[in-house]
Design a protein that fits this description.
Blueprint lengths: L5 E6 L5 E7 L4 H17 L11 E13 L4 E12 L5 E6 L3 E7 L4 E3 L1 E3 L8 E6 L6 E7 L7 E4 L11 E4 L19 E9 L5 E4 L12 E11 L5 E4 L2 E4 L4 E5 L4 H7 L3 H12 L7 E5 L8 E2 L4 E4 L12 H8 L7 E3 L6 H19 L1 H22 L23 H18 L1 H14 L3 E3 L1 H13 L3 H7 L1 H6 L13 H14 L14 H10 L6 H11 L7 H13 L6 H10 L3 H11 L3 H14 L5 H11 L1
């Protein structure tokens, strides 16, 4: 940078901005301070937060909550250590459907005035708190709504054990504000401590340092020393037990689920070792999993130290554990280096899919990872067809202003992002690209970044003025253009080629029962089902079902793919299993395509509405928002 005489705000060890001495030479502290300013500037540009972090920003949260299952509310206080960077007389937090009771300043708990601004769809209301230039602490007394979108309150019948209620949160993308008044932007990071009071027969866990067994008071304390963005704030309460897997890894689950989970995720340590071998030391101390009830809307949520995971991956054969590799990879891409706004979501997910597949290749070989690449390409193709290849939403760099950021949670960010990184790897070679990624993760650790910032780093560290290389990498075609570039190379799989031969044999008349499928993984079965023609006779459907028992499969991926054919071909033998699946499972990835297939016909729509009326109470708000709109 250009050097000139200047007086700057310096960064203290605690992360606070202080007036530093004037200097003509850039120091390491200057660089750190400049990064802190840059992070806040990116967060200030976040269209999905009311916060003004360049004026006053929260740095640490002390959370004290009481969990009330009868009323379905959380109540307590959120006390923030803040920095008033400009001497402003107010600090702004994001809220949605929260009841703000009182607000206090300082350690003396001096009551102050506050107001809630106008409500906007998706965004909720700004909480504007009056402060003084020297205010360092703000304490907000509040309670949540029984309908808080981030919170799912399950009755005992909705759990595996059927005896106790259960609660879990889902804060991504902008739902943290429905259970905590918070500066709810991914570009703002905080550390936190918490105290949570729950019924004495239940255990509470968070995205923090966790207890491993119940106590006799029902009061649990938590500490998260590493700064995290608000969407990684997480809480779950239920009848949970803990099972150690390795020195740094373990599993929380209901007693009825813990044995199956312990078997399914026995290779957690191997995954962690493979990840560290690729991209450096794991920076979050422990890596544990929490297996949730089936209503959880996602496959997994990468809450630091404690990934929340769907039980739909408990396939009894460890065949769906790439999802765990994905959530583990987020410990670097997303949690460690975070997208500054939701327009840059591909920086979280595209990197994570790429990293996930590298972990799986390290553990199970290239042929296994190749299958995942092909399945990912199939998912991407479906998304491109749904959105339209010319849609602006098929670009990596998005514009989600005025919209729910959940609209950006598509396979564009995940798979197109992954294939862009694979294209860079192809252009520069794997060894050089791995060195680049290691430097990227270490350079931006515990910081936020956006698309422009990443591309600047790419140009300075890899492209370095090489015009031929820049043309191969094709930033414009991948990042800012819709669809896929013309030079995109479709992935292939040797193992899938054998599946395709079996499929052609069946199409040519060979009985399904005589196909050689003995060593197929769930990925091969999924590829086979996806190749089936959309229109099949009842005899064909029945033959496949007799040979492979698809309707009663214990694998959720296989089952969901089979149900699409059952619906399209009116294969009523699967109706009971279909209704049971839709009533039990809340994972949006499965629900949306199945309900879409059902409503394609008048008779199917009638069936869909009847099932949805029963199933909706079992779904999280993340799923119902999408399905309510789909089903009108």
């Amino acid at each position: 940078m250009r050097l000139y005489q200047r007086c700057l705000l310096g960064l203290s060890l605690a992360g606070s901005l202080q007036l530093a001495s004037c200097s003509t030479q850039p120091t390491k502290d200057d660089e750190t301070m400049t990064q802190a300013q840059s992070d806040l500037a990116m967060a200030a540009a976040d269209a999905h937060s009311y916060a003004k972090p360049t004026e006053a920003v929260a740095r640490h949260l002390d959370l004290d909550l009481d969990v009330n299952f009868d009323q379905k509310i959380l109540s307590g206080t959120a006390a923030y250590q803040i920095e008033n960077l400009t001497g402003t007389d107010q600090i702004i937090f994001d809220t949605r459907d929260l009841e703000i009771e009182k607000v206090f300043l300082g350690e003396e708990m001096e009551e102050t005035t506050f107001r809630l601004g106008d409500s906007k769809e998706y965004l909720g209301r700004p909480l504007i708190v009056d402060i003084k230039p020297d205010t360092k602490k703000v304490t907000i007394q509040y309670k949540t709504s029984p309908n808080a979108a981030a919170l799912q309150w399950l009755n005992p019948q909705q759990t595996a054990g059927k005896k106790d209620p259960f609660l879990f949160t889902q804060s991504q993308a902008i739902l943290a504000r429905t259970w905590i008044p918070i500066q709810d932007s991914p570009g703002i990071r905080i550390t936190y401590n918490a105290q949570v009071k729950v019924p004495e027969n239940l255990l509470a866990v968070m995205s923090a340092e966790n207890p491993v067994e119940k106590n006799n008071t029902g009061v649990y304390t938590f500490e998260m020393e590493q700064p995290i963005p608000s969407y990684l704030m997480a809480l779950s309460v239920g009848d949970l037990v803990f099972r150690q897997v390795g020195p740094q890894t373990g599993i929380y689950a209901e007693p009825a689920t813990i044995e199956a989970a312990a078997y399914e995720f026995a290779e957690l340590d191997k995954m962690l070792e493979a990840a560290e071998k690729l991209y450096g030391k794991y920076r979050w101390d422990r890596y544990d999993l929490l297996v949730l009830p089936p209503s959880f809307p996602f496959g997994g949520m990468e809450n630091p130290r404690l990934t929340f995971v769907t039980p739909t991956v408990l396939a009894k054969d460890r065949s769906l554990t790439s999802l765990i590799a994905h959530e583990l990879a987020h410990s670097w891409s997303g949690n460690l280096v975070t997208n500054a706004t939701w327009n840059d979501f591909w920086l979280n997910e595209g990197f994570t899919v790429y990293f996930e597949r590298r972990i799986m290749e390290e553990l199970y070989g290239k042929e296994y990872a190749d299958m995942l690449q092909v399945l990912g390409y199939q998912d991407l193709t479906n998304t491109l067809n749904d959105l339209g290849p010319g849609s602006a939403d098929t670009r990596l760099k998005l514009d989600l202003e005025g919209r729910d950021p959940d609209e950006g949670l598509t396979d564009i960010a995940y798979e197109k992002g992954n294939f862009f990184l694979r294209n860079i790897e192809r252009a520069v070679g794997r060894e050089r690209f791995d060195a680049f990624l290691n430097k990227y993760f270490s350079t931006f650790a515990f910081q936020s970044t956006n698309t422009d910032k990443f591309l600047d780093f790419l140009r300075s560290e890899l492209i370095q003025g090489d015009e031929a290389l820049a043309k191969k990498i094709n930033i414009e075609g991948w990042v800012y253009s819709p669809g896929l570039p013309e030079d995109f190379q479709k992935p292939t799989s040797a193992r899938f080629a054998q599946v395709e031969e079996a499929f052609q044999s069946w199409i040519s008349g060979k009985p399904a029962a005589q196909l050689d499928t003995k060593d197929w993984s769930s990925h091969e079965w999924l590829h086979f089902i996806r190749m089936l023609p959309e229109s099949m006779t009842q005899q064909q459907m029945a033959e496949l079902d007799r040979a492979f028992n698809f309707t009663n499969s214990g694998n959720s991926e296989v089952l969901a793919a089979w149900f699409l054919h059952a619906i399209r071909n009116n294969y009523t033998t699967a109706d009971q299993a279909l209704e049971a699946f839709l009533t039990k499972v809340g994972r949006r990835k499965f629900l949306v395509p199945i309900y879409k297939a059902l409503i394609a016909t008048p008779e199917g729509k009638k069936k869909a509405l009847a099932i949805y009326a029963k199933a909706r109470p079992n779904y999280h708000a993340v799923s119902t928002v999408t399905l309510d709109e789909l089903l009108k």
